[in-house]
Amino acid sequence: MNQPVGGDGTVGKALDILDSVAAIGRPVRFSELLESSPHPKATLYRFLQTLTNQGMLSYDPDTQNYTLGLRLVRLAHGAWQRSSLAPIAAPTLDALALEVGEAVHLAQIDAGHVIFVDKRRTTSNFETMAQPGRVAPAFCTGVGKVILAYMSEERRTRALRQQAFLPYTPQSHTRIDTLTAELDVILRDGVGFDREEHELGIISIAAPILNSHSRVIGALSVVSSTTRQSLDSLTAFRPALTAAAKQIGQAAENWQFPAQP
């Protein structure tokens, strides 16, 4: 199904193509990109050529596949160093994961979606879709919901408009009114839960990361499977989780977080 063309001119269209290659998550052929592209064949080919020439994409003539280029990797690494909480939070994530014995996720938000910027995995008994660099909806993830809850009213309204409310599982919110009701509860309680809303069998308890001005700059979660924990048992991790989130917020005082539009 064709996607709408971006509204930011040539640069926006090129970035949309990079997003398409990244979203597929593997080497991709021209024909695959063309199937979902809003651009004519010649236009798409011209964009791909330009992105390849600039090192943003890499093309293998033997397999005829496109992958993300090394220049893009360098840019991403620079952004990770300067705009991500991950370098600041790393020691705290290590300590929290060791204390709770479960997976720990660190996330930030962009355009209404959460970006998992770091992760600690303490067991091989289960795995989640959340990987560093992976994007997920805010409305059905523990980290996403606590960030939404602690946003200013203006920022929250804008972010809620960006939610698709797709039923990832039978537990997913599909209406804005049920989500906003839960956000009010999260704001009152200080933590939120993922009740198998994004992945069946995966649950979490999440806490916001706030700066000294009480502005939410990210979220931290302890994640487990329903074969290991229950929502009730996850609450035992609340003191360690909230202490770790506070520690990261304090460590980030001199960190320049990209301004949210």
Overall body shape = globular
CATH superfamily of the largest domain: GAF domain
- Contiguous low-pLDDT stretches (5 residues minimum) are 1-7
Mean pLDDT, all residues: 87
CATH architecture of the largest domain: 2-Layer Sandwich
Q: What is the helix tally?
A: 10
Number of strands: 9
Biggest beta sheet attributes: 6 strands, antiparallel
What strand order characterises the main sheet?
6-5-4-9-8-7
| Rg | 20 Å
End-to-end C-alpha gap: 29 Å
CATH class of the largest domain: Alpha Beta
Q: Return the CATH topology of the largest domain.
A: Beta-Lactamase
**Order of SSEs:** HEHHEEHHEEEHHHEEEHH
How much helicity do the residues have? Answer: 40-55%
Blueprint of the fold:
Layout: H1 9-24, E1 28-29, H2 30-36, H3 41-53, E2 57-60, E3 65-68, H4 70-83, H5 86-100, E4 103-110, E5 113-120, E6 135-137, H6 142-150, H7 153-161, H8 176-189, E7 192-195, E8 202-210, E9 216-225, H9 231-234, H10 238-251
Antiparallel strand pairs: 1-3, 2-3, 4-5, 4-9, 5-6, 7-8, 8-9
List keywords for this structure.
alpha+beta, 10 helices, three-stranded antiparallel β-sheet, 261 residues, Arc Repressor Mutant, subunit A, 2 domains, disordered N terminus, Beta-Lactamase
Task: Provide a concise account of the structure shown.
By secondary structure, the chain is of the alpha+beta class. 44% of the residues lie in helices and 20% in strands.
